[in-house]
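Re: adenosine-5'-triphosphate structure - here you go.
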Amino acid sequence: MIELKDVRKVYPGGVTALDSVNLSIGAGSIHGIVGRSGAGKSTLIRCLTGLEKITSGSISIDGKSMDGATGAELMKARRAIGMVFQHVNLLDSRTAAKNIAHPLEIAGVPRSQRRARVKELLELVGLSDRADNYPSQLSGGQKQRVGIARALAAEPRVLLCDEPTSALDSATTRQILQLIRSLRDRLGITVIIITHEMSVVREVCDSVSLLENGRVSRSGDLLEVISDTSSPLSKELISLPPTAALEPGQQLIEVLLAESDQVRHIGDLFALLSEHALDVRVEAGSIETIQGKQVGRLHLRPADPLSAQRALDVLSTAGLHAEITTAEEVAAEQAAAEAQEEENR
Ligand SMILES: Nc1ncnc2c1ncn2[C@@H]1O[C@H](COP(=O)(O)OP(=O)(O)OP(=O)(O)O)[C@@H](O)[C@H]1O
């Protein structure tokens, strides 16, 4: 269990990068931390790993304090956390096996033990046949596998992944995320993934925290956070494709497909609309399968205000979150999402 209580970090120049951060991450879970540029993600990583001293509050891993530790105690606490980075930074002059062995050499692990451990780690990340390859002979995904094996060398209890797939294409991203999940299942480690990619969170995380301006605005089970429609960041977890041009003032009904016992998938929603002969049409929609459940957001275009009201009543009665939005609100949301994508590039 990782616990942050009232963590505050103020940099010497006076910037408050983290403010009253409270987080509780269950042992053995995969927890995503998402935030925009400048939200405080890097600061949080540095504080978690003890590279940066927090101004106040406390951080503990399995009940052991990280914030007060110094010297040998801090080194030991840091070994509890394996780090995986966006840019793997392997040593070019060393083979995959020697890169993985590097932290073990530094820790003074005897040669024979090192060999056995490296063999085991290469198997774990599916790279046994690449042991003698140099980084220049490996693909981006294979390099990241070496990086993950290196991070696991000292048998950490926590794997802290900083944008682990941001430099990879979508197929390789999926493979790396599957690897991370299987490592969690096999080793029982806790994984924290810091990312700006909502697809990564949807694909692999059990729970998520939204970091906004140095504060955790929402934290919890992934489906619970997605169901909170009050935060723009939580809405981005299931983002809608662009809606075709709408007339000014056009009303739309925004529906969240999640956590309704009556409407469990999109087919149920269409059946409900048809059963009540609702005069609405689907303008845009995005459906994902998360933790084995269909989750989605849709924009329905009602024929007139009366149809809108009827649809709202029917959808709400069926346990769906539905609200009226306007063409202007949709356009503003899309512009903000596009600006965000541009910033992340
Ligand atoms: N060493 C520092 N000294 C002073 N201010 C800092 C320092 N490092 C970060 N900051 C400030 O703290 C805030 C949070 O920065 P941080 O780098 O943690 O955000 P981030 O979410 O990682 O952003 P990005 O995704 O762009 O890397 C920003 O306002 C940043 O300017």
